[in-house]
Amino acid sequence: MSKAFVFCIFLTSFFIDSVYAQKDAPKPYGPVPSANQWRWQKMEYYAFLHFSINTFTDQEWGSGAEDPKIFNPDSLDCRQWARVCKEAGMKGIILTVKHHSGFCLWPSKYTEFSVRNCPWKNGKGDIVRELADACREYGLKLGVYLSPWDRNSGEYGKPGYITYFRNQLRELLTNYGDIFEVWFDGANGGSGYYGGANETRKIDRRTYYDWKNTYKLIRQLQPKIVIWNDGGDRGDLRWVGTEDGYVGETNWSLLNATGDVPGDMLAHGLENGDSWVPGEVNTSIRPGWFYHAYEDSRVKSLPKLLDVYYSSFGRNATMLLNFPIDRHGLIHPNDEKAALQLAAAVKEVFADNLAAGVAVTATNVRRSRKCFGAAMTTDGNEDTYWTTDDGLTKAALTVDFGKPTFFNRFLAQEYIRLGQRVKAFTVEALVNGQWRMLARETTIGYKRILRFPGVTATQLRFTITDAKACPVIAAIRVYNAPPVLSAPVITRDRQGMVGIHAADSGTVVHYTLDGSIPGSGSPKYTGSLASDGKLTVQAIAIDPATGKSSQVGREAFDISHRGWHIVGTRDPEAEKVIDGDTHTAWRQGMEENGPTDLVIDLGVEYTLKGFRYLPDQYRRSGLITTYRFYVSADNHEWALVDEGEFGNISNNPLWQVKSFPAVHGRYIRLRAIGSTGGSAEAGYAEVDVVTD
Ligand code: FUL
């Protein structure tokens, strides 16, 4: 036979095969991702960067009244941002090109409130341009966060603002190359500078922006973009209802095209929704979105970041991890270190797929000339899949390791281009000849990763127990993740007793009180330690069996609360505000239209230079949004020392730290002016002071 003839037969059979196979493949079931959503989903993990004028005022939200002259990073380097993100394993970067203050990181033609009027590069700089260039150099995609709410613009709330907003979109979507995602935050309307009006402006978030026509413009300018919108018309992606870094374990990539989306639906999607709207989990590597030096030691630990990874990417969502850019214009070294540790840990966990190259069998394989067999789930190709005959909604795959094998992670992947189908599944292990249930779960979607205590088994059985239509599984993988120890948790109670709590049993805790890094030579923790004044406690946990140690846990305390009392209430629950336990809270009803006071007697006079407020951690209402803070020597004459807002407290109810010029006093008064949930209540987990 001539070579040409053989080649011809090969081509013909390839052609017949693919036609037959296509005809034979399951039909898509329900909504499926668009080409843009599919491209986006495969990005899996990418960065958020928060940087704006409020980086220079230490606030989470800017008011719009700031002087552009304060925006002056001394070493801004977008290549550093891109390098860190690339090395962290991320595929793109979304930058807050305009946050709620309205300050623009590019020299927009349509406003004076931008980098054009700041000292950085003598007003000749363009951060969006520098980042676009850096992304191109590092092979990253670029996205933009353009806040619909603009606290600077005098036009905000009026029809003219929509033209302004679209003009800015046009600049961003035409001048900087491909933009993969545009982010429209849901915070909309409220107090602001508004061109000097200094007032409160409310808008109807459903109608004001005329999203329909704005979307049309976006898609015309960037046909490959995905739209994230938490404020108005349904975009291509959805918020998952929290900024804490997780999505529901049951997570459908579906919603209805219209109608309200309550929090629970954001977390879980809608099983029978009529549109494909997958979840994106956004969270910050630190407590806040913007940079605050006081959070330098609050960067998420490796166990926490791994938990976020498993609870977002591991639950059929993408992971959007934020780096606050610091005042130098850089990603802070602590944040870089944490992100690289996560990348190394992820690489280690997923290095060795124990299901690759071993026998996998299925209870049913779709009758076809094309291969839809079990082996398609372990061939390393995510575009091939195992599927069954139509009409089957139950089926199983069995992985035979051929020898006792230890594992503690399981990953499954649906071929979502044919729809998200699986409603329920189980994972079992064959241990000493007996099947043992490891997990009973619900949805899978693009990727689902399960964590469970390690087990030694010869086989693993993955059973789809319910599905909307025949299952279509692109991959299953099995791993043995090495243990990662958690840093000890450090607390101090009202009496000043310091407790250090190891998260992993069997570990030994060592600590220091002198600012040095603890090691195996530092004192061993055997029980609570008495303390009084300012104190920094650092601790690590060491596993004596392996010698592995955790990251360092660190907690800096100001004066103890021993002599403190809540004044002016008989409610004994009020003492919870100063008990040092962040899990307990006190709530008090607010006067109509505020204000409501919390007065604390510190026992003796101190030099005070700030205060800290932690809202109730378990409710979304009663979180103080605007405040005044007073100090007194005698509980009669009060001096107002600070006032302002706790920006973004509703979505991110973390410790609020406020400073003011040093003042002497024994009594403090936190006056709640407004709070979430209609200002009916003010809730406090803790209130603390910062002394000189
Ligand atoms: C929130 C905003 O208000 C925050 O400032 C931050 O940008 C976060 C990602 O979204 O809702």
- Beta strand %: 25-35%
Please compute the radius of gyration using only Cα atoms: 28 Å
CATH fold field value of the largest domain: TIM Barrel
Q: Please count the beta strands (DSSP E, at least 2 residues each).
A: 32
Number of domains: 4
**N-end to C-end Cα span:** 92 Å
CATH architecture term of the largest domain: Alpha-Beta Barrel
Range of helix content = 10-25%
Total helical segments: 9
In CATH, what is the class of the largest domain?
Answer: Alpha Beta
The distinct bound ligands, ions and cofactors come out as: beta-L-fucopyranose
Quick synopsis:
This protein is an alpha+beta fold and 692 residues long.
Question: What would you say this structure looks like, in words?
Answer:
This protein has 692 residues and is an alpha+beta fold. It folds into 4 domains: 313 residues, Alpha-Beta Barrel (TIM Barrel), CATH 3.20.20; 121 residues, Galactose-binding domain-like (Jelly Rolls, Sandwich); 69 residues, Immunoglobulins (Immunoglobulin-like); 127 residues, Galactose-binding domain-like (Jelly Rolls, Sandwich). An 8-stranded parallel β-sheet has the order 7-4-3-2-1-12-11-8, with helices on both faces. The N terminus is likely disordered. The structure holds beta-L-fucopyranose (FUL). The site of beta-L-fucopyranose has 9 residues, from loops.
